[in-house]
What we know:
The protein is mostly helical. The chain has 17 helices and no strands. It has two domains: 2-198, no CATH class; 233-448. The longest helix is centred in the C-terminal third of the chain and has 34 residues, at 415-448. Keywords: Membrane, Transmembrane, Transmembrane helix.
Amino acid sequence: MFLNFSLTIFSIFYMVGFIGNAMYGLARNEETEYLLTLPIDRRSLALYNILVSTNSQFYTLAFLLGAILGYTVGLGLNIPIQVLKVLLHVYFLTSLSSLIALLLGGMVSKEFVRKLNVLLTLALIFFYFGVSYLYDAQFSGLKVRDANIERFARWFLFVNTDYNFLSWTFSSKTTLLLGSVLISILASIAFFLLSPKLAFEPVVRKGVQHFKDLTMDLAKIAKNRRPRTRGSNAVFWKDWKLLQRNEQFLFLILYPLGFGIFMVLVSAGSARYLSLPFIGVSVFYCAIEAGILLSRETSQKDFALTLPVRLSSLFFPKLFIPVLLNVGLFFVILMFSYALNRLDKFVLILAPIHLLLLTLSSLVGAYFSLKRPGKGKNQPFDAVAVFIVQGITFGLAISMLMPASVLTYAKGLSPLEILIHRTILFSGIVSSLVLLVLFARKLAKLISGIK
């Protein structure tokens, strides 16, 4: 059980990280265009990027090797044989990942690769849990009576089945072991045959077909073009387009959504299981989203100040969009819970608390993006500000959601316990309102001082 579970988890992280890095290296860029003019074989360039991607997964391999060696020593197994199996497993994962990265990375742009990497990271993890959830596990021998425990047990039982191809290299069945070897060899052969043809290959459309495609694209743009808007509406759509083009926003939005849906599936959908995990993550991400939008605007403030709009109209959408998005995610998850008939009255308490925390976090994130800006393009504030934002968002979320959950679900509480939890909940709400007013004033002062 431990061996197969460790193999599966580390293999998922290895493949996700490897494919993402390899696709990014194999995507078209100016550096590879220059290298292609030199007498260097394309297969060599592809192999070089694969080696670099393998090196980037050093820590994952180190953890995997440590888990295998600990398992081997604990059971008194043959260490050299287990090390050879680890090498075979790494070769199996690398050959598959290399072929996937080659087929996808050599034909797309870097911007698309970054966004696809985010989707791949989320999809692969949730796909594994989804498949294992559908697996018809037998629980009669475990004497499981609780539905929640049964759902969690299902994840662990799936890793020991023959359907889990990520553990074939350590399988005691010869057919599965030979199958992993055969897949590795075939993937390697396909990589060597395809790398000279597909790696770094630019997509070129010629002649009449190119003209037709260009005409169709222009017609589609003209058809879908929005009428011109003014003032805050124009700024809103500008920030919305900026959000859509930022690959980091894709992760900040999809991760809370996927995580919330996953919690609904594995925890009988009770709203209390969404309170801290989902709301805590979405509130913190809301601060990051507001900080990114505001930092992008202030990085080009000389141009922004020339626009015929007021400062309030220029900066308000950057606070409103993250709040609106995360409220929408919360609504989607609630509708998903309702469709599964897993919605309870605790939502009536969660909704206003979530909205209050989101509003506060957007102000906090925007404030620290101006007060303590980060160095990178996708770093809205520095490391110190990150800890401050985390402390404010998670601290207030815990101070309100935990006592609210206890007051709603706990039975047999004494009058003193009820008073204590109500006091903590009231203190959290008051603290949030005070901080909201405080950061709103501080942010308004910083914005008014921008020249």
